[in-house]
Amino acid sequence: MRLTVGTAAVASVFDPPEGQAPYSYVFDLSGDVSYDRPEEVQINHTLNVARIVGEEAAKRKVKVYVRVQLPWYECPEKGSHDEKEEIKTVGAIGTWWHESLRYLGGIEDLNLVIIRLGIMYGPYIDFGRIPNVLTVAAVYGYMKKPMKSLWSPGKNPMNTIHSEDVAAGLWAAAQWMAGLGRAEADKVAGEVIPFLNSKDKVGAVVGVRPADQKIVAPLFNLADDSGTTLHKAGETMTGIFGTTFEYHNFVTSTMIRFRLEDVVEDINEAHVSAWAEMITTSNPPVPNTHLSAYMDTFTLSKHSIALSNAKFKRIIGYKFKHPDMTPDLMRDIVDKWKDEGSWPKFDA
After folding, report:
1. pLDDT tens-digit series, residues 246-279
2. Contact 254/149 with Cβ under 8 angstroms?
3. What is the distance, to the nearest Å, from the Cα of residue 99 to the centroid of all Cα atoms in its chain?
4. Is pLDDT above 70 for 25?
5. Is 134 in a helix, a strand, or coil?
6. Does an H or E element contain 102, and which?
7. Whole-angstrom Cα distance, residue 236 to residue 278?
């Protein structure tokens, strides 16, 4: 299984404009964000891109290489989990995003620092769970019905991070790394990046490090202070649209969860048709929105993201701009979508 991306194109990105100094800070936000992509696509779009970009960065001897890791993991619900704990990856997407960390961590002299995010939200972000659920919450507000979860109101952690804190946090981590270099950074913040793949991929896929190779790299969790849960996120998002976040009864939710793949289309029928009505009856209409009210099985399934930010605050010394997910931050997202013409308006 040997898939490739354009190495020449990647190399050209590192060439600075004429008369300017070489780039010294590299922020790697690459990787496929679609959960349902086949494994071969995840390898090509995530592992291979990170591999080629990382190798080029090492060749150019950049001062800092910051790798963003999205939370394709499943944390135990109890407690808040630090960087030393081994947490399970989710699906093929989790496997190959994590594998990218092992490859990058094994590049000698790459001044790597890994930032593992909570669930990211903020203006203009249109992928992931928050934009999808926010859109569906608007649909239920429009229909004047409560939005109901398939999952009982347990802890269900869904730790979050605002995009402005992502940007500022990445910059803070880069400045920290620039003053240390890789060897010292490993001493201060290095963690073992465990092997979480199938051993038969070693040797079969370019970029898969041996299972017994110990990979150590600086790793930080970056999540806000709010301890966001499914219930809190649901209440925050539905509240701004004048509706409520509730739960199906035990019998109904159990029946649906066991048949989720079979009934996903039925679940979405009301969402999608109401959203279509909203964008066509908007004033003015919104014919080309990039937002969708369709919820796939991944979004409808139960997920737990519980990441401790204590290490990031202690070592980097970072203070959050948005320590809590609030209704005002959700309204700001919607207002910016309205301004760009991606969200329906009924008050004009």
Report:
1. 998 888 778 877 888 888 898 899 999 999 999 9
2. no
3. 16
4. yes
5. helix
6. helix 91-105
7. 21
Token pair in block for residue 96: 């190959």
Give me the residue label for tokens 């301890």. 227
Confidence grade of residue 142 (pLDDT, cut at 50, 70, 90): very high
Contacts of 290 (CB under 8 A, 6+ apart): 126, 342
Nearest C-alpha neighbor of 136 from the set 23, 18, 271, 32: 271
**Model pLDDT, residue 5:** 57
pTM (global) more than 0.85? yes
Q: 23-334 adopts what CATH topology? A: Rossmann fold (3.40.50)
Concatenated DSSP letters of 72-83: -EE--SSS-B-T
Q: What confidence tens digit (pLDDT) does each residue in 161-181 have?
A: 999 999 999 999 999 999 999
CB 308 within 8 A of CB 219: no
Tokens 């150590």 belong to 216
**Distance (Å, whole) CA 23 – CA 145:** 52
Tokens of 31: 């990787």
Q: State both tokens at 79.
A: 């407690």
Q: What is the pLDDT of residue 2?
A: 41
Other beta carbons within 10 angstroms of residue 272's beta carbon come to: 17
φ/ψ of residue 88, rounded to 5: -70, 145
